[in-house]
Amino acid sequence: MHLSKLGDTGMNRIITKICVVILIAMGAISGCGGSSGSGSCDFDFNSILNGANADMAFSQWNCVGSKPGFIVLDFAFQVFEDETGFSTNVGLFTYEQTGCRSIRFQSGLGDGNLINLDGSNESGILTFDQTSSTPGLDGISSDCLLEVF
Questions:
Q1: Residue 98: its pLDDT value, please?
Q2: CB–CB of 84/68 below 8 Å?
Q3: pLDDT at residue 29 is higher than 50
Q4: 71, 130, 138 from 68: Cα distances, Å
Q5: Structural domain boundaries of the chain?
């Protein structure tokens, strides 16, 4: 097979396109983009849990939420290994981890997402941003300190 009509420039373009496709495929396989099951996640979600469940809680996060142009909101927040939690601003909720640093929650007051999770029990600090269908609770950035019981 003779490919001389493509020339070096044509072959370089084909090789470049093949390399791009391979890199995209490798990113999808490795979980690039925050997949909860990937080995490339730099955040240990379990490090922010407050116990196995509400009955076995050993701590809670005391948080201050802020939203540009709105009053600061103080609230308590707990998240448990059994995929349940409690927040004084949305009540009891269930959740599923949707990415490396994110969860989707559902409560009686509405649903939403906690994204950009960062921190740990060891550091005693947790930060996250909240999107929510609950009026007034969308677009809140929160800073939390751990309270151990």
A1: 94
A2: no
A3: no
A4: 8, 13, 11
A5: 1-30, 45-148
Q: How does pLDDT run across 82-128, given as a tens digit for each residue?
A: 999 999 988 899 999 999 999 999 998 888 999 999 999 999 999 99
70 vs 135: CA distance, rounded Å:
13
* In CATH, 45-148 is 2.40.128: yes
- With bands split at pLDDT 50, 70 and 90, how would you rate the model's confidence at 4? very low
Residue type, 107: S
- The tokens describing 15, both together, are 């090789």
Fill in the amino acid letter for 44.
D
